[in-house]
Amino acid sequence: MRDYLNKYFIGFSYGASFPLTLVILDYWLKDAGVSNSVIGLCTLLHATFMLKFFWGAIIENYDIPYITKKIGKTKSWILVSHTVLIIGIICMAFCNPNTSLWKLITSATLVAIADGCKNIVLYPYQIQNTSDKNIGYTANMVSLGHRIGTITIKVLTLQIAHFFNWKSAYLSAALFMAVLTAIVLCMNEPTTPHRKANTLKDSFYESIVFPFKKLLTAHNGTNILTILMLYKAADFMMQKMAQPFFIEIGFSKLEIAHIVQLFGSTAVIVGGFIGGYIIKKIGVTKSMIVTGVIHALSFFLYLLLVKYGADATCLTVLIFCEGITGGGVTASFLAFLYKICKTGAQYALLWAFYEMGGLAFMSVSGILVDFIDWQYYFTFVPFMSLPALWLLRKTR
Predict the structure, then answer these.
(1) Looking at the 3D structure of the chain, how many domains does it have?
(2) Residue 217: which domain range?
(3) Distance from C-alpha of 123 to C-alpha of 74, rounded to nearest angstrom
(4) How far, CA to CA in Å, does 365 sit from each of 36, 52, 309, 362, 380?
(5) N or C: which end of the chain has fewer CB within 10 A?
(6) Residue 99 belongs to a domain with what CATH number?
(7) Separation CA 275–CA 148 (nearest Å)
(8) 211 found inside a domain
C-alpha cells in the first residue's frame, strides 16, 4: 500500500508542475490577447523538456558534490531540480506577456528544463516493485497522482488569477512546489542500483546511444517509435487549442476552472481506473486500441460548442466524455512505456520521441485553426489518431 502511495505522490509531482509551461501558460497568453498562432508556436519552448534524456545521462551517472553524501543520489538531484524549478516559476511571475514576452518564454524554458530533470530523477520510484501482474495498477496510480496534481495546480492558479492577477497565481504555484518538494524528499531512497560511467562520453553512450540502438534493432522497434510519436497526436492538438477556444467563445476563468479542470480531471481519474481494469482484462496493446478509438470519437463533441457557443451543459457533457476516455488512454499508454523501459534514461529517451510528436502537432495547431477555422479543425483532428491505431494492430 505504501508503495502505491509513493507512486501516487510521484505522479502528483509530475502533474503539479507540467501545466505551468503549457496549459496555464496558454490561458495566460490568451487572456493577455496573444494570437492563437503565437500560442501554438510557444509550445516549441517545451523542446527543452523533450530533450531531458541528455540530462538523464548525467543524472544517472554522476553525483552532486557534498549533497549526495548527505542525503543520497536521488534525493540530491530531486532537491536541485526542484530548486531550479521554483526559481523559474518565480521568474515567470514577474513577466508580462505584452511587454516582456521573450523574458516570459526564457523563464518558462528554465522551468521546462528543471521539470524534465525532475521527471528523470523520479522515474526509479515509478518502476520500483512493478511487475507484469500489477503494471496496470501502477500506471493508474501514477496517472491518478498526475491528474490530482494537475487539478490542484490548474484550479489554484486560475482561481487566484481570477480574483487577483497572474503574478499572484504563479507566486502561489512556486510556494506550492516548495511544499511538494519537502514531501517528496521525505520518501525513502529507491533501491534501484546507480551506475557511474568513467567519462561523460561513456555515460551518454550507456544511457542514450546503446538503448536507442538496441530498440532500433529489436523486432517492431521502428513501429514502436512511430506509435510513441503518433498515438496521442489528436489529443495533443485538442489540448493545445481547447483553452483558447473556451475563452474565445465566452467561457469565464471560473467556468473553465470548475468544469474543465476540476470536473474534467475527476472524470479522467475515473477513466484511469477503468483503463487499469481494461489493461488487466485484454492486455496493453488491445487496451490502447480500444481506448484510443473511443477517445478519438469523443473529440467530435467539440462541434456542439461550435454550434451552441458558451453553453455550460454542452461543455459538461464534452468534458465528461473526453475525460473518461482520456483517462483510459493515459493509463494504457503509461503501461505501454513500463513494458519497454527499465531505466530512467530509457524512459526519458522514449518519452522524448513521444513529446517530439506532441511538440510538432501542438506548435502548428494554432496556425491550422487560424487557417481553417474551429468547425473544420474539430472535424479533422480526430482522424489524426488513425495511423497509430493501425500500427498498433500490426505490432506486438
Answers:
(1) 1
(2) 2-189+201-394
(3) 10
(4) 8, 24, 21, 5, 12
(5) N
(6) 1.20.1250.20
(7) 17
(8) yes
For residues 65 and 157, the answer to whether their CB atoms sit within 8 Å is no
Question: For residue 222, is pLDDT > 60?
Answer: yes
194 in a structural domain? no
How much is the pLDDT for 2?
64
* pLDDT (0 to 100) of residue 234: 87
In the structure grid, which three cell numbers stand for residue 50, read together? Answer: 523533450
- Range with the largest mean pLDDT of 35-39, 124-128, 195-199: 35-39
Using the structure block, give the residue that is written with the C-alpha cell 518564454: 105
The SS3 assignment for 335 reads: helix
- The whole-angstrom separation of Cα 16 and Cα 344 is 20
Query: What's the CA gap between 208 and 295, in Å, rounded?
Result: 33
The dihedral of CA 52, 58, 63, 66: what is its sign? Answer: negative
Cell numbers representing residue 180 in the block: 511538494
Residue type, 359: L
> What are 130-178's pLDDT values in tens digits?
555 556 566 667 777 777 888 788 888 888 988 889 999 999 999 999 9
